[in-house]
């Protein structure tokens, strides 16, 4: 088989985290009673007029700033005309000629992937197919969306999936979108083509619609590359078309021939005024923008955290925010990392609401109690588990569990003597220079004392008794 180069460009649709929809005051929220969040505007009733939600524009600008885009100062709105039952007006308000952001990009694995543009538009409703009928839920109609369009810079299915993962993370950290792919907040269309190595012209592309997980992006692109190579190898031609990915079979199927911009008869929307974005607006939004995940990554590396561990912490924003709160509360970055990674993450369930309801001050105090030996390693684990699961203050947990080690040196001495008397052979070994038996003695004493003594105290008494023997 000849050698082909894969060329991928993406269109990433992300719903914005506004309270209300983009052109009316209806609530923007996932789920809820079917057709419960709609009004005459978002169901396209005659005589209604759209009113632009400024928060949606601000979030689109925040997305643009996060990817280093240029922000368009004089942005316009266009109608994209087509009929589909989920689009009550028979047109979508979008931006063709003057999108809110242009240029920019994101580096992944040392390669810079360029963005063409980011534009704002409204989402359509949702069709529900059930028992041979099709029902329409307009709750999603009019939810603000940004569409992030890349240049055809991506070269493999893996790279495409990694890129989307990075875009998603950037949007979530910037507070632009919740990025919940399983709820459709983030959906991807992939334009895929292949060309012979050394060729100077791109191959014909197909567009795979509505991919809603990293796994499906990867699978769909992989399948499509194979399929196109098969077509070319057997002497055929790839047809420009829109395809759908079937999750069950992992294959793509033709939906319709690909439409071009002119098919939609775009024209400026006469109902909405052009929008002037000032330097002052941009400065304010830029000032309020939270630290990006890539900047946080570099900061963690600066603490001496490994790249892998930094990735683990950054995977979920709630975890990264909690880690940062611990550091602000005075934690040593490495002990905090170990406790978050080793214990907290064992209990953390992101689907349980993305929240860590633990006081960072208590968490840091538990770490320092463990550091100074006032609570044991197991005690620290118990404290973290209960603080996370029950949201209880540390002091209450310490009291209930009796976590503070109260030492009775007479009890430690009698435990040490008991262990030594029961193991004369091991004592002999120690006297003959075998210091390895020390850890055996330590373990036995700790077991007898059931954690009611610091390791340091046991060791001191143990050594003095052994010398006396
Ligand atoms: Zn509405």
Report the total helices. Answer: 15
- Major sheet description: 10 strands, mixed
Q: What's the number of domains?
A: 3
The average pLDDT score comes to: 92
Shape verdict: elongated
N-to-C CA distance: 80 Å
Beta fraction: 15-25%
Low-confidence spans = none
**Helix fraction by DSSP (H/I, runs of at least 4):** 40-55%
Helix/strand/pairing category: alpha+beta
> Rg from C-alpha positions?
30 Å
**What is the total tally of β strands?**
17
Instruction: Name every ligand kind in the structure.
Output: zinc ion
Please write out the topology.
Blueprint: E1 4-15, H1 54-66, E2 70-71, E3 74-75, E4 78-81, E5 91-94, E6 101-102, E7 105-108, E8 111-122, E9 126-130, E10 133-137, E11 144-150, H2 157-173, E12 186-196, E13 206-211, H3 214-233, E14 241-246, E15 251-257, E16 267-268, E17 275-276, H4 279-288, H5 293-302, H6 307-314, H7 317-328, H8 333-347, H9 360-371, H10 377-390, H11 394-401, H12 409-422, H13 424-431, H14 437-449, H15 455-468
Parallel strand pairs: 13-14
Antiparallel strand pairs: 1-11, 1-12, 2-6, 3-17, 4-5, 4-16, 6-8, 7-8, 8-11, 9-10, 12-13, 14-15
Helix pairs in contact: 1-4, 2-3, 5-6, 7-8, 7-9, 8-10, 9-10, 10-11, 12-14, 12-15, 14-15
The protein binds zinc ion.
Residues 21, 24, 26, 38-39, 41-42, 142 line the site of zinc ion (ZN).
């Amino acid at each position: 088989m000849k050698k082909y180069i894969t060329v991928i460009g993406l269109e990433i649709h992300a719903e914005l985290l506004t309270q209300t929809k983009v052109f009316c005051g209806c609530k923007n929220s996932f789920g809820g009673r079917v057709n419960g969040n709609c009004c005459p505007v978002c169901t396209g009733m005659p005589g209604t007029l759209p009113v632009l939600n400024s928060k949606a524009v601000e979030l689109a600008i925040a997305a643009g700033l996060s990817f280093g885009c240029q922000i368009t100062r004089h942005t316009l709105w266009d109608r994209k005309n087509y009929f589909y039952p989920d689009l009550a007006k028979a047109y979508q308000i979008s931006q063709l000629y003057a999108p809110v952001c242009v240029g920019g990009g994101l580096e992944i694995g040392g390669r810079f992937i360029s963005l063409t543009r980011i534009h704002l538009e409204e989402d359509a409703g949702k069709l529900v197919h059930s028992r041979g009928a099709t029902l329409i839920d307009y709750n999603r109609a009019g939810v603000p969306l940004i569409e992030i369009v890349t240049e055809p810079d991506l070269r493999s299915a893996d790279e495409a999936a990694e890129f989307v993962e990075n875009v998603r993370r950037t949007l979530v950290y910037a507070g632009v979108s919740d990025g919940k792919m399983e709820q459709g907040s983030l959906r991807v269309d992939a334009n895929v083509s292949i060309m012979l190595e050394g060729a100077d012209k791109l191959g014909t592309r197909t567009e795979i619609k509505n991919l809603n997980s990293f796994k499906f992006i990867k699978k769909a692109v992989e399948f499509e590359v194979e399929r196109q190579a098969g077509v070319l190898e057997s002497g055929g031609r790839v047809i420009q078309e829109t395809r759908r990915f079937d999750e069950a079979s992992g294959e793509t199927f033709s939906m319709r021939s690909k439409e071009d911009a002119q098919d939609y008869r775009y024209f400026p929307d006469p109902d909405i005024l052009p929008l002037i974005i000032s330097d002052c607006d941009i400065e304010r939004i830029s000032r309020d923008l939270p630290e990006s995940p890539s900047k946080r990554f570099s900061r963690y590396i600066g603490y001496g955290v490994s790249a892998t561990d930094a990735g683990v912490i950054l995977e979920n924003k709630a975890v990264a925010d909690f880690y940062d709160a611990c550091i602000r509360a005075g934690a040593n970055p490495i002990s905090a990392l170990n406790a978050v990674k080793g214990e907290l993450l064992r209990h953390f369930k992101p689907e349980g609401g993305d929240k860590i309801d633990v006081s960072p001050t208590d968490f840091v105090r538990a770490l320092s109690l463990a550091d100074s030996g006032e609570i044991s390693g197991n005690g620290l684990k118990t404290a973290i588990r209960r603080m996370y699961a029950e949201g209880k203050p540390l002091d209450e947990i310490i009291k209930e569990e009796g976590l503070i080690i109260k030492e009775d040196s007479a009890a430690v001495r009698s435990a040490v003597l008991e262990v030594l008397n029961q193991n004369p052979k091991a004592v002999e070994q120690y006297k003959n220079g075998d210091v390895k038996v020390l850890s055996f003695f330590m373990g036995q004493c700790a077991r007898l004392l059931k954690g009611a003594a610091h390791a340091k105290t046991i060791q001191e008494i143990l050594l003095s008794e052994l010398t006396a023997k």
